[in-house]
Amino acid sequence: MKLPNVGLFRLVLLLAAAMMVLAIACSSDDDDDGDGEPTEPAAETEAPSDGDDLSFIPEDTTGITDTEILIGSHMPLSESSAAIFGTQIVPGMQAYFAYINETEGGVNGRKIRLLVGDDHYLPSDTNTVVRKLVEQDGVFAIVSGLGTAQHTAVFEYLTENNIPDLFTATGATLFTDPITRTTFGYNPNYVQEGNAIGTYIAENFPEGTRVGLLIQNDDFGNDGKDGIESGLEGSGITITTTETYEAVNSDMTAQVQRLRNADVDVIAAYTLPLQSGSLINNARSTLDWDVPIIISGVSADPITILLAGDAGQAEGVITTAYLTPTSQTEHPGIQKHIEIMAEYGGGADATNLSVYGQSVAELTVKVFRDAGQDINRRNVIAAAEQVRDFLCSVCLGTINLSPTDHRSIETFSFAIAEGDSWVLFGDLVSYESTP
Amino acid sequence: MIGWVLLGLFLLFFPYLHTWPAASSFLDSVDNTTGLGIGGTFGVFQMTTLGVWLVILTGLNILTGYSGQISLGHGAFVAAGAYITAILLDQTATPLVVAILAAAIGTAAIGFAIGIPSLRLTGPYLAIATLAIIVSMPQFLKWDKVSEWTKGSTGIDLPSADVPTFLGLDRFMDDSQWLYYSVMVPAVIMTVLAWNLTRSRIGRAFIALRDSEIGAQQMGVNVSLYKTLAFAISALYAGVGGGLFAYTQDFVSPDSFGIFQSIEFLVVIVIGGLASTLGSVLAAIFFVYQDGVVLRLAELIGFPERLRWAFFGVGLILIMIVAPNGVAGLVQRLKTLRPATVLEMLRQARPSAMISRLRNHPLAERLGLGRRDEHDPGDEES
Question: Whose CA, among A136, A238, A305, B361, lies 20 to 30 Å from A206?
Answer without folding.
Answer: A305
